[in-house]
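Checked the freezer inventory, then went back to the computational side. Two predictions to log before the end of the day. The first one is the construct we discussed on Monday; recording sequence and tokens without edits.
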Amino acid sequence: MPKKSLGKLEVICGSMFSGKSEELLYRLRRAEYAKKKVVTIKHHIDNRKSYSCIVSHHGSQREATPLGSCEESLKKLIQLSKEPIDVIGIDEIQFFPEAAIDVIQNFLDHGKRVIVAGLDLDFRRQPFGIVPTLLAIADEVIKLRAICVVCGNEANYSQRLINGEPAPHNEKTILVGGEECYEPRCRECYQISH
């Protein structure tokens, strides 16, 4: 009896501007070079540069199916586990609901390679969404760092800005944006007011 193929979970995480989407796109291109059937998903909330493409800060892009956090979107994800797909790439994984963890586990049980990218910490430096759980069950973790815009050291944090000043702690957690709202900062240069 042939042995069942097991899946693999790869989690790409880090701060804003650390190259997460770029790394995801790179890995998906390599899978296609290897003649694997690839599906790309993004959270519909991230429509900064495109609604139907993942677009990195460096301009690389790839068509992606935008899905949300609703039950219908999760059903569409579940359906993918039954299709002849080898690799599933998901960007902005921190925005997906907790139910997505079971869906990803289902992909793995069906022998799929799953590559997700997302912020591991929110602007308060707190674990973000489902990413901590995915890090715990991952087969491979890639933690990327940006460069601190203040001192030039490696940056692990996403400094949220409001009118050029550090955002207060009580701001809402989710604010989709780019350079106008966030800067990469190191531990020493990161600031927040309580």
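The second is the one RB wanted added to the comparison set:
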Amino acid sequence: MTPSNSDKSRSQGRPPKEDSADIRQQIMESAVDLFANQGYAATSVREIAKRVGVNPAMIHYYFGSKEALLHAALEQALGPFVEAVAAMRKKQEAPVQDLVSLILGAFARKPNLPILMAREVLLPGGAVQAHFIEHFAPRLGGALPQLLAGEQREGRLRDDLDPRLAAQVLFGLCVFPFISRSLAGPVLGISYDETGIGEIEQNIMELLKRGIYP
């Protein structure tokens, strides 16, 4: 039986179910890379599709729009981090070593994520700044000072610290090595393999120990 035009169109527009998750994942990963390296506004849906090797209509099929694609990519990339922070809040225990390991581990797995966040969240006019403030800040940025305040109440941190500023410093120490990666590697000789990340973590902890522990 000869397939109808509508059947042909459907087969071209929708991938087989077994390929669907893989293609969706490739689209999100490619979008994060391109958004991080050249900016959200400068990246077209067509360019993302070309990187993955699919029709641009496929991106609209999965995500609806470029903006929705960015939101979905952030949600997936930050999801494990959000869940880990929520678990710490529930447990009411957040050792600084665990926080540092958590942040570094999240960005080591997604090395372009800090650059994307710097471009599109932290800088004025970022494409997802408002979205981040509404959907992620309470679960991440707002949670970190609360976790440190809890450690402070338990006597595990100095009582003269401002948890808000301490959270900002801690996060900055963990994020900036990835934002500066393109220069830190060739200029400073810093490695970003498993051993290098371990050395970064060790040095961050040495800095923090001298400033926040009683």
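For RB: The CA atoms of residues 39 and 119 lie 7 Å apart. Confidence is low (pLDDT under 50) at residues 1-12. Let me know if you want it refolded.
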